[in-house]
Amino acid sequence: MLKILTPMMRIIEVPMLALQRKIGINRLAWAFLLPNLVLFGLFAFLPVILNVFYAMTGGDNVLLADRPDVGARNFAQLLDCSNHFDPNSCREDKFWRAVWNTIWFVVLQVGFMVGFALLTALILNRDIRARGFFRSVFFFPVLLSPVVVALVWKWILQREGVLNAFLDWTGAGGINWLVDAQWAFGWSVFISVWAHMGFYTLILLAGLQAIPRDVYDAALMDRASAWRTFRRITLPLLSPTMLVVLILALIKGVQTFDEIYAFTGGGPGTATTFIIQYIYERGFAGAPRLFGLAAAASLLVAGVLVVLTLVQLRISKENADG
Amino acid sequence: MAKVLSFLTATRGKGRLHWTDWVSYGYLIFGVFLMFGPVVWLLLSSFKTPNELDRFPPRFLPYAQETLVVDGYDEPLLAFVVTEGELEGQTVGQTRRAAGRSEVVSPSNPTERVRLTTDQLEPIEGIAFATENYTQLFERFNFLKFFWNSTFITVTATVLMLLFNSMAAFALSKYEFRGRTTVLLLVIGTLMIPQTVVLVPLFLIVTELGMFNSLWGVIIPGAATPTGVFLLRQYMITIPDEILDAARMDKASEWKIFWRIILPLSAPAIAVLAILAIMWRWNDFLWPLIVLTRTENFTLQLALNSFQGELQTDWPSLLAMTVLTLLPIAAVFMFLQKYIATGIASTGGK
Predict the structure, then answer these.
(1) How confident is residue B153, by pLDDT bands cut at 50, 70 and 90?
(2) Of the candidates A17, A33, A198, which has its C-beta nearest B255's C-beta?
(3) Are A302 and B193 in contact (CB under 8 A)?
(4) B167 touches chain A (CB under 8 A)
(5) In A, which residues are within 8 Å of B36 by CB distance?
(6) Label partner for B176 (CA 20 to 30 A): which of A111, A161, A315, B143?
(7) CATH number at residue B73
(8) B220 to chain A: nearest residue by CA?
(9) How many domains does the structure of chain B reveal?
(10) What is the ipTM of this complex?
(11) Boundaries of domain holding B30
């Protein structure tokens, strides 16, 4: 690796040195920033602006110049409902199904995941043996790719899979898990918690270990009960970390796509279709490619994410300031 | 055994285990089964023959019927043990089978063929790892091509990202220039724009740049990350400015200071970022799914997903391919899990 890099670095040095002589040391900073800023501009900021134009135009042409202006009609189509709680009454019913699925999914997934991550972190924070081993056990699924996670569980849950074999053996009888809408949704929540819990456990464990020992020693001196110590010391001192974890989990939860798409394909029906899959299907998977609707839906998701991220940055800043 | 038990039950200087300790260890051991179990099951299943995979209820270990070499027969014969009749208890090889009847020979008497009904025979099975699932990936599918695509994307994107991000982090940590705060705010701004919410315009830009259905269409948009810039900047700030000043006295150019001094000194942070980048790129799914639509451009993740979507799921190949896809990440995990943990804890994910 170094053998390729060294000559490359020497070659770059020539123009960089010439530039340095010409503009001086401090302004050379821009040269160092250039590649990154170009990429950010091209693939982050420009798309944000273009997204607005896509949301305001219709048709299935990808070139903006060939797209007819439709004003706010894409948004109107997305939001037009006689009753927003009932997707059947909406003009774009699939969008609202995805929205409600996503809301339910995020509530359940984040709730269970943060709950179990906290429980696991508390247990790992106890005086236990082989802590490093157990910590990495819970962390392990985080590294698996979404498709692998989906396939691992699909193999277990399939009609003649090992779970149904076990249920047969106990006499409970097998269930066709991924064909039943509610089971498919429940398992989607489960595999998502399974795959991501370790990450949040790690952050919470770091938060727990940052709580000074002497606070607990003081509680011990006062003969505070374990429950009282937990309520009055652990929880309040952990709450900044908890908030960060909660917001991070929400941000990621809203964007859930990969593992569920590979797991159920959004089905049965639309039972596990979430908002990003809606955007993907409208814009890329089906014909006609309704880029306008996809972009309008993206903007709505982006709005939610921006609010969440601002809250997160605010909390992180407060934590850092003490 | 008693030693193991006393090791497991001993506490650090507290004497006997409290009931909460039992609950804790119970939970953790349940966790080991829940987290590793499914992957171990996948691994074992990937070594089973198609017949064995169809079996319900499944068996834990992979079994296959043993074969027998009998004089006068070129191919090894499937081995059975006879359960009733004259030859009861003998091991025989099956030469032909039709409509519930089998023709078998005994290895001790290869010239005499005996006809038996199939219920008089019981297959002899042994634990056997069917590697055909793996070898046929290379014969029947373009596995190497997918593997190469994934590797090329991962390596190139990681190298570019490390270079670009460390250059930007160097500028933001070691230079005083007008507009620095603005740039920092811009970087924070990009944190708020995940790929998932700009898919449509990103698709246009990548297409216009001629990178649709090209591996570069996956590599380039992911080559600059705000997380990487922040992670490296935090680390580079701690490098004392005096080192840079000394190098400048020696007439070193700024670029030389960057790659001869800053980069080597930031190695720990760069290593952490490299591991994260490899993980992100190797496991990437949504963006490649949009950009790479031709089968010959598929990454492993896309190939896996498209094979499982086919009408008749070819589980033997699919299982083997899944194992090969998770193998590199599992290897990284085994050797570098300490760094991964610190890396992820310090960046707060992506």
Answers:
(1) very high
(2) A17
(3) yes
(4) yes
(5) 137, 140
(6) A315
(7) 2.30.30
(8) A39
(9) 3
(10) 0.87
(11) 2-45
